[in-house]
Structures are given as C-alpha cells and as structure tokens.
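Task card 7
Instruction: Convert sequence to structure tokens.
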Amino acid sequence: MFPPSPKNTPITVKLQETTSPTPNTTSALKIELIDQGCGMDEQTVSRLFQRYYQGTRTKRSKRGTGLGMAIAKQLIELHGGKIEISNQVNRGTHVTITLPPKRKETPGIVT
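Output:
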C-alpha cells in the first residue's frame, strides 16, 4: 500500500472504532497506516490513485502493475468510505482509511 521504502522501515498500524449514537447501527472504523520512510513528492501524491501509476523514489526496481492503490480506493469507496494521504518528503507517509457505520441487519426483517 505504501510506496517502497528502505528495507526495515517500520510501519505503524492503528485501528479505532467509534461508537455509533444511532440505534441498530454498527460502529465506524478508522484505520491508519504510518511509515517513517522517504515519503513522496507532490506529483506522486497527486497521481497515487491513478491506474498504472508507479511512482517511487527508491533504488529498487519498479515491480507490480501500478493498480494497487487505485483498486484499494475503489473498494473503500464502494463501502462508503474514504482514503486520505498525508505525507512529508524524507519523513514518511500517513494513510487514513475511514469506513462508515452500517445498519445492523435484523433477521427476518427487510429494510
């Protein structure tokens, strides 16, 4: 999910569930992925979700198809969520995925 970073760069994963005030609704979920790698330049961030784009600042070869982030964004949006990128060159990248609450299904009742 992240642009390639130097080997052994730590990645922090945070999960946060928010309680829904609405009855019969599940909690929303916030997922944060934080690395302390090389970050991305503005051009890379602006094109990150474009299909087939493979922006990288590392010495490693570009492997893959450039579809990962485009597919991830589509899946998240299909679930009514959003994905946001904040980034600082030479300091790292912070990806936040927010998935909204869903209505709980009651067996035998069609809504």
